[in-house]
Amino acid sequence: MDLLNQYLIPHFNYWAYVILMMIGMHAMIVKNNLIKKLIGMSIFQTAIILFYVSIGVKEGADIPVLHHHAPEVAESHTPAADPHHAVDPDHYANPLPHVLMLTAIVVGVSTLGMALAISQSIYKDFDTLEENEILAKIKQGGPGIDV
Amino acid sequence: MIVAFDIIILIFLVITAVISLRVRDLLGATMVLSIYSFLMCLLWAEMGAVDVAFTEAAVGAGVSTVFLIATIYHTRRHSSD
Amino acid sequence: MSEQLPAILLVAPLFGALLIGVASPGDPRRAFPIVLLSLSISLAATVALLTKVVSSGPVDYFLGGWAEPLGIGIQLRVDGINALILVFIALIGLLTAIFSYRGPDDGEPTDKAPLFYILYLLLCVGLLGITITGDAFNVFVLVEIASLTSYGLVAMGSSPRGTLAAFNYIIMGTIGASFYLLGVGYLYMRTGALNMAQIHSLIALPEVAASQTILVAFLLILVGVWIKMAFFPLYGWLPNAYTYCPSGASGILAPLVTKVSVYVMIRVMLSVFGAGWVFQSAGWSQTVVWLAVIAILAGSFIALAQVELKKMLSYLIVAEVGYMVGGAWLANHWGMVGAIYHILADAAMTLCLFLAANIFVKHAGGGRIDRLEGLFRRMPVVAGAFVVGALSMIGVPPTGGFFSKWYLIRGGIEAGQWPFVAALILSSLVNAVLFFRIFEVAHFGRKPADGHHHHPPHADGEPSPEQQGTIGETTGSDRKPRLTAVAPLVAAAALVLLVGIFSGPIVEIIRGALQGMPHVGAAAPLIGR
Amino acid sequence: MPTVIHSSLPLWACLASLLAAPVIVLFGREPTLREATTFAAGLLKFGLVLAMLPWVLDGRTVEYTLIEGIGGIHAPIRFRVDGLGMLFALVASSLWIVTSLYAVGYMRGLHEHSQTRFFAFFAISLSATLGVAFAGNLLTLYLFYEMLSLSTWPLVTHHQDKEARSGGRTYLAYLVGTSIGFALPALIYTWVKTGGEISFGPEGILASTDIGPAQGMILLLAFVFGFSKAGLMPFHSWLPAAMVAPTPVSALLHAVAVVKVGVFCVIRVFTGVFGVDLLSRLGVATVISWIAGFTVLASSLIAMSQDNLKRRLAFSTIGQLAYIVLGVSLLSGHAVQGSMMHIAMHAFGKITLFFCAGAIFVATGRKYVSQLDGLGRRMPVTMAAFAIGALSVTGLPPTGGLLSKFYLVWGAAEAHQPALLAVYLISSVLNGVYFFPIIHRAFFRPPIDAGEDTPGTGCCAGEAPLACVVPLSITAVASVLLFFFPGLLYDLSALMTGGK
Question: Does domain A2-58+89-140 have CATH number 1.10.287.3510?
Fold first, then answer.
């Protein structure tokens, strides 16, 4: 039973992200259709973002935004409080992984966009998006293919 | 950060991911993928990462789905696997 | 002005790319001067930085001035190792920009040329950034910039196989970059820092060094970087990508992208984890050197089986990556020096070979090796540069290729890794066979092979013009290659020789940087002599 | 008196012909100007080498460092001219002038194609030969050794036909293969063993290191087989394959420059890298002497069976090279001196034979020994020179060959090696066996009918063109003169073995 409590429950996030990542990677490699590969890719990338976000999670922590109801801000109005040590880190989730993941999301989407544009160009040349058919066409060669 | 809530969303996430990859109609797959993104955004909002959540909602669900539908429009809707 | 150098060399190509987008979306003639200007500014900046590093040691630069507390601002760090690589990236970028003057596929200047140059400059920004940054996550961002632009460049060619190769390159590249991101995530989870120096100081603590997370982080980063550098088992994307991409693109991708990934591996091994941590158990270095041996042999022998010239050269890149990874993992001083020096030598000779191959393929009409007949006679200058690159690949003394083998073999002997030394020698022999097979085809050509008795005697013995005509009627365009194509090629050949001749000073800079590298316990032999 | 003189003469001696190559290409269209450049370069090179002779003769070495830190700590590109280097350089540069004269006659006689390329690469290979002669450390030696293999490939494959292509392929496979396969690791192993010190000095590089007999054996074998231009048995078949080249190439390169570079490197390995006393202490040199002995006997036997004249001369060269390697591996003072003198004696003798073979081909188009009946009457001068050359190679009195063989035999006796002494004597007899039938056939057999006369016979009465006959007579006379005035060779070789 302690296996369940000690490993499974608190690390559920990490189990989930590994499962999602493997689903995505499986699709990227095994799927025949290029679009399905790209769907697998976006699942693969969002899983990593899930991992990063779950690093910054704290039990019972508030969102990392200083709003005026927050205890620290209220105290700081009183002259005694020292403005520099206002924030108590345990109250807030760690914002740094979140910031990093903004970049990762944008990267994921731009890669998806580039890949989709390329698959449209592949469709224009090979008239199919199935990998086995494309490879068959290449093996036959033909004028347009092996320039 | 409610653990029970997390576990439910994660299970749904895994289910939508598998469905999105198994369904043969690409348009359907795209729709399920956007559900997957919205669930992910819900999960992150609940975990305290608010900015990542609405970025994922806007970008992950919104723009990717638009890209995918545009590509399917220009190519073929049916996928062999 | 001079302390802003690290920023200048990144910003110049960035603004160049934006300027092209704004100034001349459709007009290639206006794009070319902007490209030259921005790349020469960044080249000048890198050279100035090199002299600064040589004279006064490593240079640190914090973007936005966030010096303290360490770890907030992104730190750019230039020491002996990456100063040299920066100069090479800028120089090779400039040479290839001149080479691809007439648009990506060397045809008539289509409207694609400016787009090609925008991607080209952004790729230069990515590569320069990867080499200069001192922040682990920033490396991921710049790796993505460089990868996205190289996907675009590969897909821009006219050949349909190029677009398919670009698609495969995207899939493999994303997996590689994501593994690197994951590795940095685990590092951050355990150490809470992203700045390389900071992580290193934390890993130096015994309880952190022993933790599982650091081990997982290292493996993930390693696999991710191996995919990006096409290390043997993970090289699937490279051959097609570099064979079917436009000629201008192969000139910048082949020499630099894989070498920069090798640099990232070495930077991570030395500056983030520390040589002491990485080489703590001899088992690792033994297995990786064995992997490198397999990479070298496989790359060389598959190259032997190739029929197309550019595909053969691409497989040689896979073998050369095996040299560098094996050298870095020999866990001794000369192995590391050899690996870093080989990054420079290999970049130069790959550039020289790919530029020459592009000209040959265009003028011989088709990439197959047996179509290159008689080319030495028609293009002596291009042939001469190709020969210099080939000799360097074989490892003939005055060229850079020889001296990198010189140090790598020495490292191999001192580390007692005899299979690695044997693999290096064997691959030089295979390279010799490969390139002399091409020399034979190109040298002999379709001369009247039946003895020399009856052809019209004339004083000099050079085949008379009408004879040359018979050779020239191959399908390829018979015109002489453009000056803007030949000049960078000659410069590349000269670079190969210069890297060889000045290998002494280069190695001194590298050894100085290695001496200065923070190292822990077991690394004593690494930083020793 | 300072024993080391720093002057850039050795560098200019090397560069003289290297710089001539582009000038030759420039004058590609005007043959006379092109030939004039070749001669000018030859004379300049010979002059520069002679200029250094006085210094070297009174025991001093000329040193010059071209690029300081090229190979890391102690491996710059360095030139060092000592007795051995000077002897070989004199032989190579003097014979280049004679060969250029011969080449002009030969090429014009047969209207060869792409002569500019031929002369340009000829000049480059000569600069590589001198580079090896004057090399100051192992790295420079290896650099010019590789340069020589590569610059001679276009010469070997000059005819650009089927056999030239396959001959060139074997030629390169052996030379580049063994040099990268064996010489490079041996070179780097020495570099590692001595901590970076690989320049040649009075005593061997490895003398100060703690190298064991096993390591010494492997290293010595790697070096000797790495420098496969010395033509030792298992790696010799590139030499007959290179006979596909035009005769001036096989004359100068495969009788003088290329093969002597191989032997020169072997002598450098014995005296410069290991040092004679280290070798005698380790006792590993006897293996090399057995290999060389076997090569001498086997090649002489094969030479007897060869009908093609040039192939017979090729195998005779392999035998003579093995003489020199055998002499050095005996490690006795006189034997080493004899082997150095044999470099010069054999060079003059063998080049005469190759010139005659070429002249016969130009004059009559005949290549095979069986076709040489009665040629003595038609080509008296050529066949006389052939006879003198044959005498010199077999080592009979009126020619220089005798002196060097005498020293070799003396050295063998001094080294108490009766078996190897017997090898020397038997092989001299065998030399006679495969040369004298040719002379007999040429002078005492009735000529077979003139038959078809291939081109080039347009000129005087059956003799080859003057430009071919004059050089071969010069070298024949030279080999006789060497018998009477060996003083210069003796002093130069004594310098090297003076100490030991």
Answer: yes
Residue C312 banded pLDDT, cuts 50, 70, 90: very high
Per-residue pLDDT, C453: 38
| Domain positions in chain A | 2-58+89-140
The pLDDT of D426-453, averaged and rounded, is: 79
Compute the nearest-CA separation of A28 from chain B (Å): 10
According to DSSP, the β-strands at D77-81 and D61-67 are antiparallel
Burial class (CB in 10 A: 0-12, 13-18, 19+), B26: buried
Q: Which two tokens stand for residue D182?
A: 């064996």
B21 to chain A: closest CA residue:
A36
Q: In whole angstroms, give the CA distance from residue D11 to residue C67.
A: 54
Domain count, chain C: 1
Q: D269 near D334, Cβ under 8 Å?
A: no
Give the pLDDT confidence of D363-375 residue by residue, as tens digits.
888 888 888 888 8
Query: Which residue in C has a C-alpha nearest to residue A39's C-alpha?
Result: C171
**CB A93, CB A61: distance < 8 Å:** yes
Phi, psi of C474 (to 5 degrees): -60, 165
B77's tokens: 């809707």
Residue C415 lies in domain = 275-447+471-529
Q: How far, in Å, are A81, C220, C260 from residue C226 at the CA level?
A: 52, 10, 11
Is C413 within a domain? yes
Asked whether this complex has an ipTM greater than 0.85, the answer is no
Which one of D72, D162, D191 has the shortest CB-CB distance to C449? D162
Give the minimum alpha-carbon distance from A77 to chain C in angstroms, rounded to a whole number.
Answer: 27
**CB contact (8 A) between residue C406 and residue D71:** yes
Q: In this structure, is residue C308 part of a structural domain?
A: yes
**Is pLDDT larger for residue C347 or for residue C277?**
C347
Helix (H) or strand (E) holding C56, with range, is helix C28-56
Half-sphere exposure of C287 (CA within 13 A, CB side): 5
DSSP D407-457: HHHHHHHHTT-HHHHHHHHHHHHHHHHHHHHHHHHHHHSPPPP-----SST
Those residues whose C-beta lies under 8 Å from the C-beta of residue A132, and which sit 6 or more positions away, are A32
- Model pTM above 0.90: no
